[in-house]
Each structure stands twice: as C-alpha cells, then as structure tokens.
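Why do we care about 3D structure at all? Because function follows from shape, and shape follows, mostly, from sequence. That is the central idea of this module. The next example makes it concrete: a single protein chain, its amino acid sequence, and then its structure expressed as tokens.
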Amino acid sequence: MASVEGETSNEDGGGGSIEDLYQINVFPSELFLKFRKELQGFRVGVNLEFYNLQSNDFQAKLVLKPLSPDRRWKFICEPIQKDVRLLSKKIPITKYLNLQVGIGHNFHHNLTGWKWKISTCLGGDGISQFRNKSSVSLFPGFDLRIGYRAEYILPDIHGAVGTGEPIFNMNYGKLHASIDRFEAIITHGS
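And the structure:
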C-alpha cells in the first residue's frame, strides 16, 4: 500500500520527530466506476464498486433519482445482495448536521425495515475529523471524484507549577490523512 507514515515514541505526541507525527495514505480503499444515463427528468445509474482490494470485495448497484435540484429521494437496487432501498435526500438539521431516512427490503432474508442516519463532515471519536469529496470534470460526460479524509489532533501547549508536572510541555498533535475513494463517472445525456 502506498503510504507515508511514522510512529511516535510518546503517546501524547511529544518526543518524536516531526515525521513521526503524521500518516498519509495515498492509495484509495474504494474504487467506483459509475455509468449514468439521463432520461425524461431522471438519472439512471449503474455503479460498480470495488472494496478491500486484497480480498476483492465487489458490489453492483442500480440507482434511480430525479434530476431536479430539489430532488427528495433516490431508489437503489443491489441485485447481488437482493436489496432494494428508497432513501430521502440529506435533510439539514443544523449548519453541520444532516439527517437521511430510508426504507428497504431484503429479498434474500425476506426482511423489510427502515434506517436513519445523522451525518456531518466534521467530528469523530475523540479525534477531530474532516471528510470531503472533490470532483473534476475532464470533459463533458466524464468526471473524476476523489473522497478524502483527515483525522487530526491539534497541537497544544500546557504546563503546571507545584504539581510535579513540567512547567512547560507541548503536544505537537497528529495527522492521519487518506484518500478513501476514487470514482470515475461516465454520464450519457438524454
């Protein structure tokens, strides 16, 4: 795997060299090839998704959604898993939080249920996190999208007097950045 990384000798980020405080993975763990066709106000898509390249996990999806800017839903069919789902668009709750609701049926297990998800591009478990996607249109009908993530602990300076702790101490922080997803999107207009 292509990466640049180091390990610190001190858990709180002190004592190691600057190179030991970051890890950058440049090889994506997910590769997507998406084919899209626009028909009478709808976009029909076929997604071929490849995960965990070492074990060659594969998933195929058929996606249908309206083209209108206020689209409120999308329909997803996963024939290999025998799943169908109807998902709402992400509904803003606050400036940084979104809610998405869906209902689905699994034909393999004969189960019907609904799910909800609150998501944000910020936050994490004890570590600050930033996630985003960037798109580049190479020419009409062919786009590349890269999904990336950065988890970080910001540097801080601290100290104490009369407690047995150092008067001055510094935590240099940490950074783990990765390209998680690479998508090639081919769109055929109506």
